[in-house]
Amino acid sequence: MKHTTLFAALSAAVFGVAPLVHAQTAPTSASVQAATDSAAASSPTSSTSSTTAAGGAAPAAVVVTGSRIARTTLEGPSAVTVISGEDITRQGYKNVFDALSNQVQNSGFVQGADFGNTFTPSANTISLRGLGPNHTLILLNGRRLADFPIVYEGTVNFTNLANIPSSIVERIEILSGGASAIYGSDAIAGVVNIILKKKAEGFDINVKLGGTSRGGGAERRVQLTGGQQSGRLNTVFALEFSERNPIGAYQRDFMAERSGTPTNLLSRRDATAGRYIAQDCEALGDLFGGSVVNYASRTGNYCASNKVSPTYWSVQTQNRSKNAFGSANFELDENTTLFADVLLGRNDTVNNTRGPSWTSKSTGNSYFLNQNTGHYEAWTRYISPEEMGGLSNYNRFWKDGAIAASLGARGIVPGTSWKWEAGYSASWYESKGRTPRALANIDSFFLGPQLGVDASGVAIHAPDPVRLATRLTPDEFRGITGYTESDDESWTHTLSASANGELLQLPAGPLQLAVVAEAGRQGFTNAPDERINQGYFNLAPNSTVTAGTRNRYAIGAEASIPLHRILTATVAGRYDRYEFAERDSGKFTYNGGLELRPTRDLLLRANYATSFRAPDMNYIYKARGTGYYSSTTDYYRCGQSGQPLASCEFANVSPGADYVQYGSTDLKPEQGKSYGAGIVWSPTGSFDASVDYWNIRIDDLVTNLSADQLLRDEAACRLGTLDASSPTCVDTISRITRYAANSPVRPGEIREIRVNPINAAQEESSGIDVSARYALRTAGFGTFTLRGNYSKTLTRRTRQFAADTVRDELNSLTSSDWPDKLAASLNWNRDAWSATLFATRYGKIPNQAQTDYLTPTTLVNTSVVYRFSDRLTLSAIVNNVFDRIKHDTTGGWPNYAVGSYSPAGRTGYVELNYHFGG
User: Fold this and answer.
1) Looking at 256-270, 412-426, 795-809, 850-864, which range is the least confident one?
2) For the whole model, what pTM was predicted?
3) Which of 227, 699, 719, 766 is most buried, taking the most CB atoms under 10 A from its CB?
4) Is 162 in contact with 349 (CB distance < 8 Å)?
5) How much is the pLDDT for 384?
6) How far is CA 891 from CA 133, 716, 757, 847, 896, in A?
7) Coil, helix or strand for 648?
8) Each residue's pLDDT tens digit, 290-337
């Protein structure tokens, strides 16, 4: 859907509902971090009409993520963690994504914007409990956002966590476990609700500058926030402008050169003899910083360089972001309020993770008949920054735009306790990409005109070897390369109505009820460059537009039932129905919880929930998708040749193998079940602690295996480590097509990897969460607050097919998820000064070669804040104080734990905030 049709689609949206979740002040609790360390906080186990532990007034009722019923305590049958807006700054978080990714519940490995050559280099997401980004529901003010229009790892839909100005965030609530009975699809691993401020007085300007001690990655940010109360109208706004410089691999000494086999820069390979033809590399010796050498391999010599990969690898993307938010609330009368809000975002992202390389006849069999020699030959050439006029001339670009808007009314039914809300919400996302590609004339540039074909259909050329070894000019480079233009969009619309209040009075208290009804529509379009199929680029002409829509309808109810003065039960049920691809699918989910408060300071809780996820739209509508992976490792050929992985010539080959992906309209919803139990103890306003056990299981899991795991399994099956007759081996080997062992070119190499989604897998994970807070208030030295949060995964089991044995992922060297995480902070406040020391300990994970474990690592952030006056505040922030980078050479270059740890090193910031007005 284009810009011009967006608002037409908005007006044509069907009836539906948005959740009644509003921004409130976050109280302190055991598993809920408070926005401030005030002297007294409401006990998480106090009754609905009691005063606080310090004797203050009874707290106001709030709606907490995971429920639609207002309550006077944040603690309920399920654990909820809160990150306040202030926490984002004082704990060193750069933005909303950074704050969420560092939470202990976020244990899953994900490919974010700084992963490298990923499918989504302009987006960031999280994976609660390691169950994948598509099993965590992301809400903004309780409402759904549009999926990012490009799928994660080329397979699943997810929500991007960019475009939300941190200055307008009041708090972020994280609910662990299933919540489909409240929110519908996707809420299997948990729910993240980003709640924005509803009130602000005066105006604030915030300026933040920073950079890394190792060089590169400088950051700049300006935020302007404010609001005004004018009679019955209340308005809030926020503007944010930020940019950061990239970090290239060449800027980090430990990966400035590639170890092991250098990258093939120029070669002629006699396909008939299976050997390289010796080349004179002197003419190209000054390229890639003078690193070109004549490399002797087992099958002959070719020109190579160990600086090719580091030159073309961004370990941190370049980004420029512009975000704006505005909201308005108008009190129509004492019982009714009209509301509207809009969030606008624009992100421009640049990276460089693949240089311009050419292989003869790459859209066919990769070799030709050389009329001059009478042999079949394969020629290769890598073009350097010196030849194309600078590294930036082969950058990749993304321009992302996003809109999230809502409007409606909320109020109270006169003479009752019932509250209601009715509204419309819409979200839209567009991502436009520009990717450099070789043009269709590149073969004739290096080989000369095609002179026909031989009896086998192989192209005939009479090339001049001098052309291959001659340095290109920038004009020549521009004549054989161009940019493909892609346009990807996604959108969702919802109309909604909900209500909650007291239904009747029971002996132990009021029975409260909430009801909700929703109807909505969502869709997406992935439109590749039309010129691909016209033969304009040196690409196979098989690119197709992928698009789809679906409708959803839902009704649900929730009840809070006081069974006894100290015992409360919560039950909820919801029915969701989806219509897509000329079929429909319905799912009923339910949950229940118990809260036992034997004393004022003690809460015992338990919960059980069913959940589901509707099939990803990409899985449903993908007709035939093709492409190639950023890099692949041929574990079978490494093992077959007896080469160690770290130095194997078939490891981390870039670009990687080709893939073909198909969709399926027959997919069923994934089904989840979760349960948990915990205890919360809060004897005083200065101390609280909690321990919770959780267990989540997903059946009918849609699986689309990663290429790396397929290649590892294939090697194990072919080399005898796994039973070749097992269902996994039979399926894996059928998915990987190889060139024949006696092929003139690329003998035995991977030709294609076939992937498609099916409902087959099962996954189960369990663990414990521990949280504690202690505040020490002194007469002359200020207030010290110590907080700690710890999460440990106890079990993690998966099974791809029903007949397969269960795989222990927790103790497997193939899983990069964190088995445990610990986050601890010490905050000190005294008069105008405030300081915070924040540390995160990451548990052990496998090394890149998956032969052993990397040791646990602790990263430390610190911040100091000085308030010159009520208006002026100055902050100094240092992230990764000890400049720790997790080196890992077991898998070869880039010599660090990619995706698990950052190679940026120590980063420092200075932040200035000034308040104008009231």
Assistant:
1) 795-809
2) 0.85
3) 227
4) no
5) 97
6) 26, 18, 29, 8, 9
7) coil
8) 999 999 999 999 999 999 999 999 999 999 999 999 999 999 999 999
| Token pair of 20 as six digits | 């009644």
Q: What backbone torsions phi and psi does residue 619 show, to the nearest 5 degrees?
A: -65, -35
d(Cα 97, Cα 84) in Å, to the nearest integer? 14
Per-residue pLDDT, 116: 64
Please answer whether residues 659 and 753 qualify as being in contact, where contact means their C-beta atoms are separated by less than 8 angstroms.
Answer: yes
**Left (φ > 0), alpha (ψ -120 to 50) or beta: where does 315 sit?**
alpha
The CA-based dihedral angle spanning residues 38, 43, 47, 52, taken in that order and rounded to the nearest 10 degrees: -40
The residue with tokens 């699809």 is 185
Whole-angstrom distance, CA of residue 820 vs CA of residue 832: 36
Phi first, then psi, for residue 406 (nearest 5°) are: -150, 155
Q: Are the C-beta atoms of 692 and 668 separated by less than 8 Å?
A: no
Query: Which residues, in sequence order, are bridge partners of residue 294?
Result: 303
CA distances from 590 to 184, 189, 472, 587 (A): 10, 15, 66, 10
- Give me 725's structure tokens: 């007759």
pLDDT tens, position by position, 613-649 = 998 888 888 867 777 776 789 999 999 999 998 889 8
**Which of 591, 834, 827, 609 is CA-nearest to residue 33?**
827
Distance CA 274, CA 578 (A): 56
- Compute the C-alpha angle 41/47/49, nearest 5°: 90
Q: What percent of the chain has pLDDT over 70?
A: 92
Least confident of 43-47, 217-221, 234-238, 715-719: 43-47
Tokens, residue 170 = 């009041």
Using DSSP's 3-state secondary structure scheme, residue 616 falls into coil
Mean pLDDT along residues 466-475:
96
- Which amino acid appears at position 739 of this protein? Y
Half-sphere exposure of 161 (CA within 13 A, CB side): 25
Block residue for tokens 């739209």: 617
Residue 482 has pLDDT above 70, yes or no: yes
C-alpha distances (whole Å) from 117 to each of 125, 364, 474, 628 are: 16, 24, 25, 11
- Split at pLDDT 50, 70, 90, the class of 46 is very low
Q: Looking at residue 467, what DSSP letter applies?
A: H
DSSP 764: E
CA–CA gap between residue 344 and residue 274 (Å, rounded): 57
Tokens for 606?
């338990």
* Contact between 405 and 324 (Cβ < 8 Å): no
Residue 552's beta-bridge partner residues? 520, 578
Across 147-186, where does the E strand assignment appear?
169-176
Our measurement of the distance from residue 294's CA atom to the centroid of its chain's CA atoms, rounded to an integer in Å, reads 42
Closest CA to 269 of 245, 227, 298, 226: 298
What's the pLDDT score for residue 20?
32
Q: Coil, strand, or helix at residue 100? A: helix
Please give the Cα distance from 501 to 499 (Å, whole number).
Answer: 7
- Beta strands 750-755 and 658-661, pairing class: parallel
- The whole-angstrom separation of Cα 6 and Cα 13 is 11
Spatial separation of the C-alpha atoms in residues 340 and 90, rounded to whole Å: 31
Which of these, 554, 682, 593, lies nearest to 177 by C-alpha position? 593
Phi–psi pair at 526, nearest 5 degrees: -115, 110
Q: pLDDT confidence of 112, banded at 50, 70, 90?
A: confident
